[in-house]
Design goal:
This protein has five helices and nine strands, in the order ααββββαβββαββα. The chain has 188 residues and is an alpha/beta fold. The radius of gyration is 36 Å and the shape is rod-shaped.
C-alpha cells in the first residue's frame, strides 16, 4: 500500500442545516407589526397633557392647559382654557413707512423723524391719497406692533387695520407697518 492510503481521509465540513428562510421572515415581520401598533397606541392616546394651539390666520397663540383644576364649561371640572397674546416686537425690529395723506407739505417727513426717534426702522416718506384721518395698516403678523405704534403717535382709536390687497402706496419698501397720515396728526 502506498503512504497516501494509510493516512486517514479528511472529511469536508458541511455547514449546519438552516431554518427555512420564509419562516424566520414571517416571525420577524409579525414582531415588527406588533411593535409598530404598540408605539402608535402610545403616541395617539389622550393622556390629558397640556397642549398648545395656534389659530390659523391669527398672530396670537392660545394655550390650553388641562392640568390646573378649573372649569371651562365643557363638563370637565378639571379643565381650564387660557389665551395669551404675544408682546409686540421691539421698535428696532419693525419697519415703518409713513405716507402723507394729509395735504400738509412735509408732514410725512416730520412723522418719519419722530418714529426714528422712537427707535423704529423707517422707509423713505411717500405721498398717498388724502384721508380724513390717520390709518395704521399692518402686514400679517404685525398687528400688535401696529397697535403699539398707533398708541405711541396718538392715532385715533380704531385706526389700526390689516394691509389691503392693494397698498395705498406704490412701493411699500418692505415695511411691516404703514402709517397713512391724515390731517389729524399732520401738524404734530
Amino acid at each position: 500500500m502506498s503512504e497516501q492510503s494509510e493516512q486517514p481521509r479528511r472529511r469536508r465540513r458541511q455547514p449546519p442545516p438552516k431554518a427555512p428562510a420564509a419562516q424566520g421572515s414571517v416571525v420577524r415581520g409579525a414582531i415588527l407589526v406588533v411593535v409598530a401598533v404598540v408605539i402608535g397606541v402610545l403616541l395617539l392616546r389622550d393622556d390629558d397633557a397640556a397642549t398648545t394651539q395656534v389659530a390659523v390666520g391669527s398672530d396670537t397663540a392660545g394655550q390650553v392647559d388641562d392640568t390646573d383644576g378649573g372649569d371651562d364649561g365643557d363638563g370637565d371640572p378639571d379643565a381650564t382654557t387660557t389665551t395669551t397674546t404675544e408682546a409686540p416686537r421691539p421698535a428696532a425690529e419693525v419697519k415703518v413707512l409713513v405716507a402723507n395723506g394729509s395735504g400738509v407739505n412735509g408732514a410725512a417727513g416730520g412723522a418719519t423723524d419722530a418714529l426714528e426717534a422712537l427707535g423704529y426702522v423707517t422707509g423713505t416718506p411717500a405721498n398717498a391719497e388724502r384721508v380724513p384721518s390717520t390709518v395704521v395698516y399692518y402686514t400679517t403678523g404685525f398687528e400688535a406692533e401696529a397697535e403699539a405704534l398707533a398708541a405711541a403717535i396718538g392715532a385715533p382709536e380704531g385706526s389700526v387695520t390689516p394691509m389691503p390687497a392693494v397698498a395705498p402706496v406704490d412701493d411699500l419698501q418692505l415695511a411691516n407697518v404703514l402709517v397713512h397720515l391724515g390731517p389729524d396728526l399732520a401738524a404734530g
